[in-house]
Amino acid sequence: MSRMSKQEKSWVFYDWANSAYSILITTAVFPLYFKAAANEAGLAASTSTAYWGYANSFATLLISLCAPILGSIADFRGFKKRFFTFFFALGIIFTFLLAVVPSNQWLVLLICYMVTVIGFGGTNIFYDAFLVDVTSEERMNQISSKGFAMGYIGSTIPFILSIALILLSQQSIIPISVTVASQAAFAITALWWGLFTIPMLKNVKQVYYKERVPNPVANGFKQLFVTFKKIRLYRPLFLFLVAYFFYIDGVNTIITMSTAYGSDLGITSTNLLIILFATQVVAAPFAIIYGKLADKFKGKTMLLVGIFIYIVICTYAYFLKTTLDFWILAMLVASSQGGIQALSRSYFAKLVPKESANEFFGFYSIFYKFAAILGPFLVGLTAQLTGNTNSGVFSLIVLFIIGGLILLRVPETTNISKTNSLSQ
């Protein structure tokens, strides 16, 4: 950290800041809290699960469809920081509201959660795009990787604190209910997210931009149309996005379905929780290692290494039987999960025209969000047809092979604005 500039440190710390939301609100605590609240209100389990799915789908779809146009507007001077701040405020305020809305108000809780999804997703579009403003192309791999590493480390602290509160309340060791302990976890998430975003708000500025025009919204739509018209000029960039769509779908599917997969193998919830924690810890140094190796062997090469490791993971999953096997699989995932995500971000940042980074990271966001459809469907269909969960996970090998083959076709090039200008 001491070798980074103030801007780089401030940017990296935002990964540390928002990691609490990812693990506590998206994955670990709030889904269970909502299910319990809906159950207390008399909703059937299947109905509350359906509402949960609809809420996630609608919020994700909304921010994904808005991402390119918001990014196009944010490319004008002064707008990127404003948009980042707006979505950050939206996310943190409604995350805190999750802690104060009565637990019997399941619909209000679900609406608040949907707003947090929009705030979290919207903020990340502009956060990723700020990478071009805080560092040089030569340092993007390292800085992006350190961001993911800080995120993994940062997620463990509020996670341990919150889970400890909930477990202690369950055992009546502390005089609060599980409901209050869960609400405290939401408050911790909001405070953690807000506190460690201060350096980002204070020190990171928009360096690359287009000069403002009289009607930035209308011009944003116009610029988006121009980009679509000239899409053939950006072949390396969009070829990478297609490759990214496939392999990141595989990565995300393994992350989101790992708990269900472990349960099918008979692994206890306590062991799954420990494995989840260990994966976060191990992933942090490996993300940094990927960044250092990318500087030596090129980002594309290390992305292909990561894809190859995931092909090994899918193959090993087919033969999985014991808890030890699942531990080995989890550590293999930890070795490449952060690295492949971090290098994808930095590789894309090197390709985009810096003055149009927000618009293009809007497309990056769309491909990331929609790369959560094919993988789970493929796993579910294969598992159902074969009657074997292992076969379902093995089927993901197809996504990594397709993604790797397309990535091989991406030309070795740097920022496309050096050869093609958006204004052409």
The level-1 CATH class: Mainly Alpha
Using the CA coordinates, give the radius of gyration.
21 Å
The fold-level CATH name is Growth Hormone, Chain: A
Which architecture name does CATH use?
Up-down Bundle
Largest sheet: none
Following the backbone from N to C, one meets helices and strands in this order, namely: HHHHHHHHHHHHHHHHHH
Total number of domains: 1
| Alpha-beta content class | mainly alpha
Short structural description:
By secondary structure, the protein is mainly alpha-helical. The protein has helices spanning 6-28, 30-40, 45-74, 79-100, 106-129, 131-134, 140-170, 178-195, 198-203, 216-229, 235-264, 269-297, 299-318, 323-351, 357-370, 374-386, 389-394, 397-408.
Description:
The chain has 424 residues and is mainly α. The chain has one domain: MFS general substrate transporter like domains (Growth Hormone, Chain: A). 79% of the residues lie in helices and 0% in strands. The chain is built from 18 helices and no strands. Helix 11 runs antiparallel to helix 14 and helix 12 runs antiparallel to helix 13. The radius of gyration is 21 Å and the shape is globular.
Entry keywords:
single chain; 424 residues; mainly alpha; Growth Hormone, Chain: A; 79% helix; globular; disordered C terminus
